[in-house]
Amino acid sequence: MDPNIDLVTKLVMADPGLPRPNPTKSYWQHVPHALANVQSATLPAERNYVIIGSGISGLSVAKNLLERHSSATVTILEARTLCSGATGRNGGQMAANVGEEYSHLADAHGPEMAGKIVAFTFRNLEKMQDLIREYDAVEASEMQRLQKLRAFLTEDTFRDFKKSIARLLSDHPSWEGLYKIIEKDALIKDHGIHGAAGGALLPAATVWPYRLVTKVFAALMDKYPNRLTIETNTPVTAVKNDPNSATPITSAFPYTIRTTRGPIRASNVVYCTNGYTGHLLPNLRGRVHPFKGTMTVQDPGKEIENRGKSTSWGFHYPITYDPKTKESGHGLYYLGQSVKTGYFYLGGENARIEHVVSADDSFVDKNSVTHLQTILPQFFGKSVPCKVVSSWSGIMGFSSDGLPLVGRLPKALTGRSGEGEWIAAAFNGYGMANCLMCGEELVSAILGDRKSDWLPGAYRLGQERLRDVLIAPESIKALTSKL
Ligand SMILES: Cc1cc2nc3c(=O)[nH]c(=O)nc-3n(C[C@H](O)[C@H](O)[C@H](O)COP(=O)(O)OP(=O)(O)OC[C@H]3O[C@@H](n4cnc5c(N)ncnc54)[C@H](O)[C@@H]3O)c2cc1C
């Protein structure tokens, strides 16, 4: 067997394990929220809904269940501190990637479905801003509405991007004006960006995601003290609905969720476990795999002007592979700038595949950090490296077909009978553009309480998807093509 295929197969099929107890320190969490370690004295015995995971997906599912079901009892089980997964360790970019992905989406799913995904993503981003305003979190989360400047480092990537946008507009003319294409000269002259073949501006925002999510959790705890508990530092080790298990089964609470603090029984279990999902649902290994991202905070000093109020950036380049070091560059650097400090929040990966297809955020890939430090000044036409203030890693969930998984889990994935297991996971690096509404739509399916046409059918767990594209060989093919 090709050694690369062998290695990638082992990596994607591996048990991601539980979230590591000693993660790297994310700058976003340097002042922990008062609820960081919240838990009840003892776990509640029975709940209508147990949600596993306290990131933005878990938040959205909890909020919608509590608001839309007047008596539902909800418990969130979180392995580590509150919001300590990808949501508390990401890039803070609220931006869509559907423009550059449109051609690929239309090829795979047809123009109508691709159009639904575009509409869903932009609607989700609007709803994120609504949520921030509703919870009076504009200041706390330092939200900035701005333009994202996507720059393409090679002629080929720029050409493909322009083709994708042209196809989007030809299929869906109502999006005319969303992307403003910028040619190379204007990129340097008007935007001070060097070394790129061209770019585009699109409406976007930046946010301090940890502060947003913890603030909304705190408000929910205040509003629903008798119906919501959050149990941090409570890893879930197994989910069962086995009638022969030691715990008695009642029809109202058929699921037993085993945790390190004892069991809890539930009518429904919702997995918002992102890159760790395969630990509790082994049949999803390979279909969803962890993808470890690297983030840095860098201080440019007085070298680079502070444009955090008006601009965030994404730099796209063809995937690279160095056969000597076996390091791959994964095609994107993303960055925003703090209005208050001028610090850049810059993420991207340049690492060996075993350091990327990994659920271990207890260390940072040093090569990726050095790489991120080296490339930053170049974009702005400077030569002095910025000072790294902080670096950390975080675990994303990637699916074999690049789309989130939203809906009821069939027996083929749980290995259990029963109708009460649900999932919203695998946002392929774009959770801020998807999770909120995926949670909302999942709750519509759980409660059966309102018809909504927003959720793209391609996100659901239909039979064809499970058979044809949500399969381990597709993950393996996508990853080995990068080596
Ligand atoms: C480095 C990095 C940069 C990123 N940058 C961006 C960006 O700029 N913009 C963007 O849109 N997206 C970005 N993302 C992706 C985005 O952060 C995610 O898609 C999104 O946060 C997913 O939210 P979630 O709630 O589904 O998962 P998470 O936030 O990962 O939450 C899952 C939670 O489940 C818990 N959990 C898992 N298993 C168990 C278990 N067995 N028991 C108990 N608890 C468990 C975990 O501890 C975790 O807290 C980035 C991600 C990373 C890692």
TrEMBL record:
Alphabetized Pfam families for the sequence: DAO
Domain of life: Eukaryota
GO CC annotation: cytoplasm
InterPro entries: FAD-dep_OxRdtase, FAD/NAD-bd_sf
SUPFAM superfamilies linked to this entry: FAD/NAD(P)-binding domain
Gene3D superfamilies given in the database record: D-Amino Acid Oxidase, subunit A, domain 2, FAD/NAD(P)-binding domain
Domain FAD dependent oxidoreductase per the UniProt entry, residue ranges: 49-443
Annotated coiled-coil segments of the chain: none
PANTHER family in the cross-refs: DEPENDENT OXIDOREDUCTASE, PUTATIVE-RELATED, SARCOSINE DEHYDROGENASE-RELATED
Stated name of the protein: FAD dependent oxidoreductase
